[in-house]
Amino acid sequence: MVDKRDVPLSRLILQRLESLQAAGVQQIYRKPARRSHSAPALPASEEESIPPTGPNRRVTPVATHPPGEEVSAIAASLEVLRAEVAACTLCGELAGTRTQTVFGVGNPGARLCVLGEAPGADEDRIGEPFVGAAGQLLNKILAACSLSREEVYILNVLKCRPPGNRNPAPDEAQNCRQFLDRQLQLIQPEFICCLGAVAAQNLLKTTLPIGKMRGELHDYQGIKVLCTYHPAYLLRNPSAKRLAWDDMKLLMKAMGRKVES
């Protein structure tokens, strides 16, 4: 097998363009330059947890999605990459034990990407990220922000389930990083919400614990990044839901979405 690192960049780009053309993509959309956002101060701590949804909740949305035909081009490019991920065998153990790869789901033109660590048993069986108990809580968190899974894009650091739901090994995360980077390059979100330490540490290349990273916005190649607790952690530690909700309110404020309890 030829190591991609030994192939000239120009040849890789040409191969990529040829694969997109074969998939029917006629042009590649590039979003306008992102507007700069200054990181707002962390709101004062409140005693609430993640609030319920309902007709009395009010939200001021700011939607800047690209036109439909351009989103379709992004979606087609993601499907080409999805097929490449499905054929990947860089991690022998994961390729040998997975049921299927778990690529990502949601709006290809999303302003917000939600990043987790790796698929679990339910995700491995169904082929979609965050569909188990943690996924149900994530849905509630998004709904409390007047968002849905269809409006954001949900993906993981790893595209295969680690046996026993263990944390991704460093070499596994490194092998999968090319796919994560290319997903983000295609979607070009303005914001990323990292769920848990594994996602945050891998994306931002840091060893800081999640407790040190949450409560503020970080920068990743011009993208505003919020780090907060993983829904699975919140299920085990319900008292942390209030802190996670503080984080989400900070993110919504940065996105221009005023969520009121």
Structure description:
- The chain is an alpha/beta fold and 261 residues long.
- It has one domain (59-260): Uracil-DNA glycosylase-like domain (Uracil-DNA Glycosylase, subunit E), CATH 3.40.470.10.
- It is 41% helix and 12% strand.
- The protein is built from ten helices and eight strands.
- The strands form two sheets. Strands 2-4-3-5-7-6 form a six-stranded mixed beta sheet, sandwiched between helices.
- Helix 2 packs antiparallel against helix 6 (170-187).
- It is globular, with a radius of gyration of 18 Å.
- The relative contact order is 0.17.
What's the topology here?
Blueprint: H1 9-22, E1 58-60, H2 68-86, H3 92-97, E2 105-106, E3 112-116, H4 121-126, H5 133-144, E4 153-156, H6 170-187, E5 191-195, H7 197-204, H8 210-213, E6 217-220, E7 223-228, H9 231-236, H10 241-254, E8 258-260
> Which structural category do the helix and sheet elements fall into?
alpha/beta
Number of strands: 8
CATH superfamily (homologous) name? Uracil-DNA glycosylase-like domain
Widest sheet, order of strands: 2-4-3-5-7-6
- Biggest sheet features: 6 strands, mixed
Number of domains: 1
Strand content: 5-15%
The helix content is 40-55%
Gyration radius, in Å: 18 Å
Order of helices and strands: HEHHEEHHEHEHHEEHHE
Return the CATH architecture. 3-Layer(aba) Sandwich
* Unreliable stretches covering 5 or more consecutive residues: 1-5, 27-48, 52-64
